[in-house]
Amino acid sequence: MTSQDAAKPRPLAARALARIDPAVATAFAMIVLILVVGSLYSPNFLSPEYLLQQLKVASFLGVIATGMFIVILLGQIDLSAPWVVAMGGMMSAAMTAYGPAGQVLAIPFGVACGVAMGLVNGVGVAYLRIPSMIITLATNAVAQGLMVVHTGGFSPQDSASPAMRFIATGETVFGLPNALIVWALVGAAAVFLLNRTTYGRYVYAIGNRERAAYLSGVDTRRVVMIAFGISGGLSAFGGVLLAGYASKAAQAMGDAYLLPSIAAVVLGGASILGGRGSYLGMVAGAILVTLLQSILSVMQMPEAGRQIIYGLVIATMLLLYGRESAQGR
Amino acid sequence: MNAWRYRLAEHRGTLLAFVVFVLLFVAYGSNHPAGFTSNVVTTAANKGVLLAFVAMAQTLVVVTSGIDLSVGMIFVLTNCIASAIVVGSPATTILGVVGVLAAGLLCGAINGLIVIFGRLQPIVTTIATGAVYFGIALWLRPQPGGNDAFNSDLADAFTGKLFSTVPASLVGLLGVVAIVWIPYRRSVVGRDAYAVGSAEVAAYMSGVAVRRAKFVAYTLAGLLASIGGLFLTFITYSGEASAASGGNYTLFSIASVVLGGVSLFGGVGSAVGAIFGALIFRTIGDLLFVFDLDPLYQPLFQGVVLFAAVCLGSVRLFQVRNRLELFG
Q1: Would you tell me how many other CB atoms lie within 10 Å of the CB of residue B132?
Q2: Looking at the 3D structure of chain A, how many domains does it have?
Q3: Residue of A nearest to B128 (CA)
């Protein structure tokens, strides 16, 4: 096999080229383009420190977007991310206050709260057949209400546990930020789940046509419910990381992550209608969104200009490759 | 012979929303410390009408089985524009109002054009355009503020009371329903929008002008959102580019539409239902105040009510005869 391929390098290259998703390629090309444009402005944009810092910031978005990615693959959406993120951060920080046992349980407890909210979404979408856009909006409002009651409406005073700070801000080998390693682990698990397990194939199948998957004997409702549980857990885990990064949780800390996580998924070439998309594309999308935000703020672009450019870039990129077929028109 | 039954079925969501609203509002009014006075009603109406306009905007798009996540941002943008140009003499004021409405139409038209000719999904399109609209609003009003020459006479006329009893804002809302919604609903384009929302491919096969129906729906949605923005300026005399406000109005508009019996799958519901949905949503928030509950619990209470309302929607599961219908 290997010798055959080596004897015919050209077809292999051509085949490899043909296998590359144009959307993923465009997203990576945009990352390079942004870095080149940025380096014209300041050579610091190509320094390893800056790039590692960006990857670290991108990993918070990446973890949250992973959950969104699985849900979007199903053809659904999870709008409860903002306050599930905040809930993850606040609950883990609150648990830390309960002595050594609380410190150990902080991260699992925060994630468990997110999984619980996600499962509520999942039951609503899968068993009660409520459109995901509505039920996740409602659980977002409930999560917000719970957190406002919990904190009394003020900025919470609990601080993050040492473990939370370690995984969000620490460094282990070769100066690699721990947050990046965490994202790599989450990503590897997601890729394995989606591409190497029957569960993952069911996710793609349901995203293409739930009715067909159901008729093929898949318990589609359970698959959908679990996917929302995963999404809630990952959102909350993102909140845990963010709370570790800032060493405490904050009101509305997740608000800045809803639209970027959706943008990261669709910029990576996944169809918002479900059934199509690769994790590699989402990684590119998350890095792209983070870089875009960072470079615009480094250039001291006012918030107004940042919003406009951000919107225009998303719209332009989608027009480049996110178009549907003209069928039925 | 059975025409009335079909009509009843068609308006069931709207009627239900109306009944719920009346019950809630009577509970609110009769427990209000100031009593059931015209002032109480006017204050409630001014707040409710803002959301009602945005909810109407959302309805037009949702009926075509799309969704507009930029309505809140158009609302904020036109609020900022209105705070700058609805100024001075009656002539310049009228020009300013026309300018605000034109801005709303333009925002809606851009959404429509991208969805139709860009062939992008409405949800991602309007996320992107919403960011742009909000950026423009922030550029116009980096800090919240107003114009000293703002025409407050016009504003007071629309937020006060007619014949010192009827809230003028409700009359304004009725006027918009009569001028925009009813003619639209009865026109061919409006009927086309329902056809497109029910089954787009079938509508296309039957010769419905799908693109025109969608374009008009998105454009009118922009117009209605801008009327809401104009109205907000009448209440506050100023403009504020607040991302939280824009996001909330978008989310609340979706909630109102659902409470008002408009199907998110498209093709079912009416803007009148969405108006009552918006009024229900606002009244729920105010009820807490009347019953002296801790304001801290207000977001949780609103969330739980919203959650219960959307779960009620799943009673249709009991009507499903073939389980396959569940898996669309």
Answers
A1: 22
A2: 1
A3: A311
The domain ranges of chain B are: 37-309
Contacts of B132 in chain A (CB under 8 A): 307-308, 311-312, 315
Residue A3 lies inside a defined structural domain of this protein: no
A12 located within any domain: no
DSSP H/E element including B166:
strand B166-167
* B chain contacts of residue A314, beta-carbon cutoff 8 Å: 124, 127-128, 131
Measure A144 CA to nearest chain B CA, in Å. 7
Tokens standing for residue A193: 């789940």
Q: Is residue A1 part of a domain?
A: no
Contact B87, B94 (CB under 8 A): no
Phi/psi class of residue B235: alpha, beta or left (left: φ > 0; alpha: ψ in -120 to 50)?
alpha
Task: Please name the residue of chain B whose CA is at the shortest distance from the CA of residue A153.
Answer: B296
Q: Which of A249-258, A317-326, B91-100 has the highest mean pLDDT?
A: B91-100
User: What are the residues whose beta carbons fall under 8 Å from the beta carbon of B70, sequence distance 6 or more?
Assistant: B107, B111, B126, B127, B129, B130, B133, B250
Residue to substitute from B117, B310, B322, interface A, most A β-carbons within 10 A: B310
pLDDT tens, per residue, chain B with 328 residues: 577 887 777 788 888 888 888 888 888 877 777 777 777 788 888 888 999 999 999 999 999 988 898 999 999 999 999 888 888 788 888 888 999 999 999 999 999 999 998 888 888 889 889 989 999 998 988 888 877 777 777 777 777 777 777 788 888 899 999 999 999 999 999 999 999 999 889 999 999 999 999 999 999 999 999 999 999 998 888 888 888 888 888 888 988 888 888 888 888 889 999 999 999 888 887 887 777 777 788 888 878 877 887 787 677 677 777 777 777 6
Residue contact B132–A144, C-beta within 8 A: no
d(CA B9, CA A96): 55
Closest partner residue to B302 (CB to CB) among A145, A307, A315 is: A145
> Minimal Cα distance from A309: which residue of B?
B132
What distance in Å separates the CA atoms of residue A167 and residue A97, rounded to the nearest whole number? 19
pLDDT greater than 70 at residue A284: yes
In terms of CA atoms, which chain A residue is nearest residue B327? A211
CATH (domain of A259): 1.10.3470
Q: What's the complex ipTM?
A: 0.79
Residue A299 structural domain: 26-34+45-320
Cα distance between residue B136 and residue B63, in whole Å: 28
Structure tokens given for A276: 């199509």
Which of the residues A125, A308, A317, A325 would you substitute to probe the B interface, choosing the one with the greatest number of B C-beta atoms within 10 Å?
A308
How far is the C-alpha of A48 from the C-alpha of A42, rounded, in Å? 14
Distance from CA of A262 to the nearest CA of B (A): 8
Tell me if A328 is assigned to some domain. no
Q: Whole-angstrom Cα distance, residue A279 to residue B67? A: 26
- The one-letter amino acid code at B222 reads G
The token pair at B36 is 């059931």
